[in-house]
Amino acid sequence: MKIVAGNSNRALAEEISSYLGAPLAKCQVRRFADQEIFVELQENVRGEDVFVLQSTSFPANDHLMELLIVIDALRRSSAKRITAVVPYFGYARQDRRASGRTPISAKLVANLITHAGAHRVLTLDLHAGQIQGFFDIPTDNLFAAPVMTRDIKERYSTDNVMVVSPDVGGVVRARALAKRIDAPLAIVDKRRDKPGESEVMNIIGDPSGRDCILVDDIVDSGGTLCNAAEALLAEGAKSVTAYITHGVLSGGAVARVSSSKLKELVITNSIEPTAAVLAAPNIRTISIAPLMGEAISRTALEQSVSSLFG
Ligand code: R5P
User: Which GO terms fall under molecular function for this chain's record (predicted)?
Assistant: First the structure.
């Protein structure tokens, strides 16, 4: 097995490599003066089972292009099997035509990865499970839930915990976590009765006196999360913590979360945390390296990956 890392998340790649006890393959990703990406594999990969680690996080287009070019270099160097390991799959929120004359960019990205030469994909908490079907190659969608469950059980008396989905779209994910920790579930239902009117947050469930745990796949601007936290506290919640797989945290999101009423935002390292994230008083990162490493190892050994989540 060989592991090749792009530049999107070197720290995670190093952690995965040490979990597997396999060094990162020598591969140089350089830029020409006009910023075109150039890749050179500096060791033989002929006949090898290669795993390419790259999150297509900010800057999404650069990281995606880098992934495609690394896959192309591997294919042309006769790697036997290429698995694109994409802990954060960018463009996933464009998974349907929200209105006329718009693209389905998640499908386009799936096509690009496949046509570049990937034989398999390994990813984590896809925004929508159906995106797996956008690929015509085997695609394993891992879940951060076991890692989050462990962290929650270490910190909370689960008797008083209530899992909350910050919107109706996230109910399946939140229910799965609630089941794991044997906690009740609540849902924040956002409604805007007329265009231009402000959104009303209705909470389905009773959070009063509870330690609420908001669960979602992505925190981007932080709006969904901070608004949900306010609504839960207004309904008498004792505390609100959030467990979110992908800390996209664009623009002023870190400042927004830091000054919010969230007790803590826990994210995984699927996206490399920025200096601002690391310095934020109420944001903590937990590692998915052992989970990804184990899934890579099982893929290489042709063992079951789904049994990791049984
Ligand atoms: C939406 O469907 C996603 O699951 C997240 O709730 C959303 O992307 C979060 O975005 P933001 O942090 O900008 O509210």
Answer: ATP binding; kinase activity; magnesium ion binding; ribose phosphate diphosphokinase activity
d(CA 56, CA 46): 26
* Domain 145-287 -> CATH class: alpha beta
CA 178 → CA 159, 162, 227, 288, distances in Å? 12, 8, 21, 20
Give me Rg for the CA atoms of the chain. 20
The span from the CA of 167 to the CA of 174, in Å, is 10
The token pair that represents 90 in the structure block:
């960018």
User: In terms of pTM, does the model score above 0.85?
Assistant: yes
Which residue has the CA at smallest separation from atom 1 of ligand 1?
A: 218
List pLDDT tens digits, range 89-123: 999 999 999 899 999 999 999 999 999 999 999 99
Distance 69 CA to ligand 1 centre (A): 29
Instruction: State in words which class domain 2-143+290-309 has.
Output: alpha beta
**2-143+290-309 and 145-287: identical CATH topology:** yes
Ligand 1 atom nearest to CA at 216: 4
Distance 41 CA to ligand 1 centre (A): 37
> What is the residue extent of each domain of the chain?
2-143+290-309, 145-287
Catalytic sites, residue numbers: 190
